């Protein structure tokens, strides 16, 4: 009976290519800027009740504190271990959407101009940055389509 030697899964060519693509994705200045802005947005969101002055609305203040810290943790880990955490950017996207609608959904009368404006801006920014972080894994190499010359280009994942 012949035995076959199998290489460990970590040495599989497809897995190695995927890791290399993730390494390229986080090494770009765009990815680093998106991560930094997302962390700063999360920090602002966590501190916004005290910055803007609606910390008297306890439910919204606690909601913003938790959502902001969660955004910071989700987006802050993208640069160090992108291959394992890039899908968490979708959770940060959901937190950004929650932040936009929170003034109308949390208990109490918290929907005032300052809290609504702050949450809409921070939530929209968090959502856009999370979407940018989630799309960062796409390989942006451009290759010409066969038979069309250089006029038409396609992106390959």
Task: For the structure shown, list the relevant keywords.
157 residues, mainly alpha, two-stranded antiparallel sheet, 6 helices
In brief:
This protein is mostly helical and 157 residues long.
Can you put this structure into words, describing what you see?
- By secondary structure, this protein is mainly α.
- The protein contains six helices and two strands; from the N terminus they run ααααααββ.
- A two-stranded antiparallel ribbon has the order 1-2.
- A hairpin with an 8-residue loop joins strand 1 (142-144) and strand 2.
- Mean pLDDT is 76; it is low at 139-145 and 150-157.
Q: How would you describe the shape?
A: elongated
**Mean pLDDT, all residues:** 76
Largest sheet: 2 strands, antiparallel
Structural class by secondary-structure content: mainly alpha
How many angstroms does the end-to-end distance come to? 42 Å
Q: Level of helix content?
A: 55-70%
Query: Approximately what portion of the residues adopt beta-strand conformation?
Result: under 5%
Tally of individual helices? 6
Low-pLDDT ranges: 139-145, 150-157
What is the strand arrangement across the widest sheet?
Answer: 1-2
Please write out the topology:
Layout: H1 13-27, H2 29-53, H3 58-76, H4 82-85, H5 89-105, H6 113-134, E1 142-144, E2 153-155
Helix pairs in contact: 2-3, 2-6, 3-5, 3-6, 5-6
